[in-house]
Amino acid sequence: MILLERDCLCSSAGRTNITYQGYHRACLAAADLVFAVVVLYYWPMISAMIDEVFASVQGEGPWVGQRHIFVRFMGCDLRCAYCDTPDAVKNVSGSEVRNCRAQVSPGSFERESVPNPLSPAGLSGLCSRLRIPGVSRPVMSITGGEPLLHRPFLQEWLPSERKMFRIYLETNGVHFAEMRALAGLIDVVSMDIKLPSATGQRAHWDEHRKFLSATEGIERFVKSVVSGSTTPDEILIAARLVAEQDRTVPFIIQPASGPVSPPVESLILFQDIALEILEDVRVIPQVHKMLQLP
Ligand code: SF4
Question: Which residues line ligand 1 (CB under 6 A)?
Answer without folding.
Answer: 76, 78-80, 83, 85, 89, 144-146, 172
